[in-house]
């Protein structure tokens, strides 16, 4: 997706958030009708940019209720003897840092520790936030219809062993020059390089995206 389409997607997300927030708080039937119209327009724009059917996108957006806030994706950063833990996703056959969506009722640390164990078989303890990235400001593909924050957490390795899961079919540690083909939807090469920077310089502060 080109830069122009990415701008359109950003505008669509903002329209969707306005519609969702409006539908959460509006009581007047006319206001509700207007916000529903805004959501339909956002769905049509997203569908046109992504080559999808508007009805499918509208159905996806309609499932989101309550005040619109970013979703949270957590990724565990685990090193062993200078090599980084990656898992291979069954969905696309490519590699990523273990992790996934944060679960309600868990702290970020609890969620990332659970995700790492479920996807790799390793027992870890979350130790430090290394980065908080806005997914839309990084070259992930495909783009998502929703705003996503990605949190990368350094984790200490406590035990366990390589174990595949229902979502991953291979688990391994890789050196910086050995990184396999990545699942770009989940992690980018630049993010992986930055995790190695943090490993070499543990005193580095957490990274985050600035304005603009």
Structural features, described:
The chain contains five helices and eight strands, in the order H-H-H-E-E-E-E-H-E-E-E-H-E. Strands 1, 2, 3, 4, 5, 6, 7 and 8 form an eight-stranded mixed sheet that branches. The longest helix is centred in the first third of the chain and has 23 residues, at 3-25. The protein is an alpha+beta fold. The radius of gyration is 19 Å and the shape is elongated. It has two domains: 3-62; 71-208, Alpha-Beta Complex (Nucleoside Triphosphate Pyrophosphohydrolase). The protein has helices at 3-25, 29-50, 54-62, 108-120, 189-200, and strands at residues 71-80, 83-89, 95-96, 99-101, 122-134, 148-160, 168-174, 207-208.
Q: How many beta-strand runs?
A: 8
Helix content: 25-40%
Helix/strand structural class: alpha+beta
Global Rg = 19 Å
What coarse outline follows from CA principal-axis ratios? elongated
CATH class of the largest domain: Alpha Beta
What is the mean predicted local confidence, pLDDT?
A: 88
CATH H-level superfamily title of the largest domain: Nucleoside Triphosphate Pyrophosphohydrolase
Q: Mind summarizing the main beta sheet?
A: 8 strands, mixed
Number of helices: 5
* CATH architectural arrangement of the largest domain: Alpha-Beta Complex
- List low-confidence stretches: none
What name is given to the CATH topology of the largest domain?
A: Nucleoside Triphosphate Pyrophosphohydrolase
Distance between the termini: 19 Å
């Amino acid at each position: 997706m080109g830069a122009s389409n990415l701008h359109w997607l950003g505008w669509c997300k903002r329209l969707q958030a306005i519609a969702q927030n409006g539908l959460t708080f509006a009581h007047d039937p006319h206001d509700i009708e207007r916000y529903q119209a805004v959501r339909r327009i956002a769905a049509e724009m997203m569908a046109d940019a992504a080559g999808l059917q508007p009805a499918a996108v509208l159905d996806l957006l309609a499932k989101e209720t309550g005040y619109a806030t970013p979703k949270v994706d957590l990724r565990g950063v685990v090193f062993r003897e200078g090599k980084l833990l990656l898992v291979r996703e069954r969905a696309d056959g490519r590699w990523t840092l273990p992790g996934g969506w944060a679960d309600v009722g868990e702290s970020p640390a609890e969620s990332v520790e659970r995700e790492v164990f479920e996807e790799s078989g390793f027992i870890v303890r979350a130790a430090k936030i290394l980065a908080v990235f806005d997914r839309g400001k990084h070259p992930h593909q495909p783009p998502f219809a929703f705003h996503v924050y990605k949190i990368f957490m350094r984790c200490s390795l406590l035990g366990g062993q390589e174990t595949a899961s229902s979502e991953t079919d291979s688990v391994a540690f890789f050196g910086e020059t050995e990184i396999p083909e990545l699942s770009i939807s989940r992690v980018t090469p630049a993010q992986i390089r930055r995790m190695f920077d943090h490993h070499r310089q543990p005193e580095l502060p957490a990274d985050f995206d600035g304005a603009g």
